[in-house]
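By way of example, what follows is a protein record of this kind.
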Amino acid sequence: MKLSKTTSSIIRSPALYIGLAVLSLTGCGSSDDDSTGYIRFYNASYNAPAVYLTVDEDLDEDDDDEVEITYSSVQFGSVTSNNALDNDTYWVELGWQDEESNDRSDLEVIYQEQHKIKKDYITFVALTDDIRDPTVLTFDIPVVDDDDDDLFNLRFLNLNTNYASVDVYMSEDNETFNEAEFVSTVELNSLTDNIKVEQDQYIFYITEPGGSEPIFTSEDISYSVVSQYVVALRDNVGVGSSPFTIDSIGTNSVTELNDVDSEASFGFYNGIATNRYIPDYSGVVDLNVDLIDDSKLKVEDLAYGEFSNTTTTSNGDYSFDIYNADNDTLFIHDALLSLEENADNMVFIYAKTDAIDDDEDDIIDENEDGIVDDYESIIKSITITKSTSSSIYSHGIKVVNLSDSDDFSRVKFYFVESDEVISTADNTLSVLQESNSSISLINNTYSVYAIATIEDTDIIMDSFQLTLDEDSVEQFLIFEADDSSSTGFRMTLVNQNQDN
């Protein structure tokens, strides 16, 4: 690994020392316009909704303002691009949407300060801690043209409130901590000077100050562009026991790096309704999961419409079998269960009715009487990763469409506010059968409708009222068969952290 020394600033470790340089930010580049600077915003507040950055040259209402810009909202763990501004002093605001409109005047402002946008500098604004009492950090980072095609630029930002300082090491992706090189000691809420590193694939390691054992070992990441990166060390909000997650902040996006040894969690939802094509099935299944070291997890008597308990295990690839609990008939053998680091997963199992084609000739009406000869139920599964959001002012809904009907192929879900009707609703999702999709809703009361188009007519399949407030959590909205419903289908809203 090549770490270039470009200033006289030295950080020492027991093994070696590395010179750190002034930050260079390629990707935005030095402008031909001598008055140009930049601003960008990174949202690292764990319970924040999407947050808007506004830049205004004058807070007084004045139609003659040359600059009054509200940029696109930024979710937790995301960042804006580098936004160019003329060299000047501006009011910088951060705010979240607490009304229907995302106009600046309707945002709940949580930060408002003046900042000087300097020529050939980026004002890097980071929001961290609890959104109800946030910390806003700002750093002026110089922009430097970089003509070296082999090196990229890297600096570190420690946002983990449990660690006043940590040591960071790096190794190439085919090496271990024993071969890693010390990079920097990183203080809380501080941004290090820049280092220049040869393009390659790398692993980051975090230790306590002076420590000889890593408390975090990242997944490997490829740095193949001559650019500037800020590597944010933040609190882990996933299910793994690692104290850290890393956000590698590039020119326009963020790559999240979890601890390579982070655990993962999973559970099951039984969406297999009784039907005439599954003989001797009363709506109850058993599952066997093959875990590490030949151990097995048994989930017994999981009834239709119920969730299993959550299991936490090592990340990796596993398999599972599904049985009819009434007669031990095998529904699925060796279905894949792939568990990524730090992720919490729910496996939805369901049935899909298909026409039988025993001779595989693509003919399902062998006697040509105009009627499909026969049907069978195929048992399937879909794995969905739960949201890690803890936002208190907005909440995510993952809609899972487990319906099985020849009358429609998709269902449209409407989240209708009090001053809207279905046709004017802003919050909608269209979800195919056997698919899922997500939506984020600000705290409010909604009328929720599931509508399918059947023979050119929109039919309300189900509806209910939904109220979201600061105590609400992330939800699954499951659309599935229900013989007791007048339409034959229902919506069920459940906590994503459901654990019976």
Summary: The chain has three domains: 3-257, 263-385, 390-500. Residues 5-32 have pLDDT under 50 and may be disordered. DSSP finds no helices and 38 strands in the chain. Residues 169 and 413 are 48 Å apart (CA to CA).
